[in-house]
Design a protein that fits this description.
3-stranded antiparallel β-sheet, single chain, 7 helices, binds fe (ii) ion
Length: 290
């Protein structure tokens, strides 16, 4: 019996009674996508998937995006990426903690991610949370004057650019000019209606957002700072502590997220390994939605 239960948190929902190894048919995908649109983050518990079944599930949410950092892709599965602290490369804190700043996946691309998922293979006893920010609630909670001021604004995004808070590390660095040339600056609306539900949200105030169209740099920086501070108020935040088998999906168009910094694994108790898929476009079951 499938059960959808709102988390004891500002937003998000937990889903139990689902076995995705058996595949997800249309009815289940409607249930899961509906839960995502209602709650922005869904935590599907107790999954047991291999690379193929996970990728098959991911493809039902949209078109998987091979990451611009192609050295981070999983061997044999370019649409998957491992995230954690157990591999040789994770000894470098710039890689291991390269997502420990507020960001929105692929906001630096013309067609950004619509959903991202992390499937927990190994979960540490302590730490390793993913923090989420509800950007739909952040929009709702702006005063009317600010809503009017920012409607229609476009923001410039570029991987690695943009201001960070004092407590945010830099993003996982681009490795070479060839990678850099694949992600020129792009513009996105600051306020975006959701492509399926139409619900409005603030979009991508974290890593990569660096300028506003037609606005002087100092004024743009102050406005982006003010909106980011508002979005990151505690009432808009959920921190997910993983159990092995959790498959967490988030609506990338209506949230920001940040990893929490973690050390290199020394044994099983402090090891962290997740598989990541990021997709763009609509889920197949909502291909016709208005
Ligand atoms: Fe991310």
């Amino acid at each position: 019996m499938t059960a959808i239960t709102p988390l004891d948190a500002a937003f998000g929902a937990e889903i139990r009674g689902v076995d995705l190894a058996a595949g997800a048919g249309e009815a289940l995908m409607r249930l899961l996508t509906g839960a995502l649109y209602d709650h922005r983050v869904i935590v599907i518990r107790d999954q047991s998937l291999d690379e193929e079944s996970y990728l098959g599930f991911g493809r039902q949410w949209g078109e998987p995006i091979p990451h611009v950092l192609d050295h981070m892709r999983m061997a044999g599965y370019p649409e998957l990426m491992t995230v954690g602290n157990t591999e040789k490369r994770d000894e470098d804190p710039k890689i291991r903690n390269g997502a420990a700043l507020w960001h929105t996946d692929q906001s630096y691309e013309k067609a950004p991610a619509s959903a991202t998922m992390l499937y927990s293979i190994v979960a540490p006893a302590e730490g390793g949370e993913t923090q989420f920010c509800d950007m739909a609630a952040a929009w709702d909670n702006l005063d009317e004057a600010m809503k009017r001021r920012i409607a229609g604004i476009r923001v410039a995004h570029k991987y690695g650019r943009g201001k960070r808070r004092a407590d945010e590390p830099p993003a996982n660095p681009i490795a070479n000019d060839e990678q850099d040339s694949r992600v020129p600056p792009v513009w996105h609306p600051l306020v975006m209606p959701h492509p399926v539900t139409g619900r409005r949200a603030l979009y991508a105030l974290g890593h990569g957002a660096y300028a506003i169209e037609g606005m002087a740099d100092a004024e743009a920086e102050a406005l982006l700072d003010e909106l980011k501070d508002h979005a990151l108020e505690e009432r808009h935040i959920y921190r997910h502590k993983y159990a092995a088998g959790d498959l967490v999906v988030w609506d990338t168009l209506q949230t920001m997220h940040a990893a929490t910094p973690i050390g290199v694994a020394t044994g099983k108790a402090d090891s962290r390994l997740l598989w990541r898929i990021s997709v763009r476009g609509r889920p197949a079951v909502h291909a016709e939605a208005a």
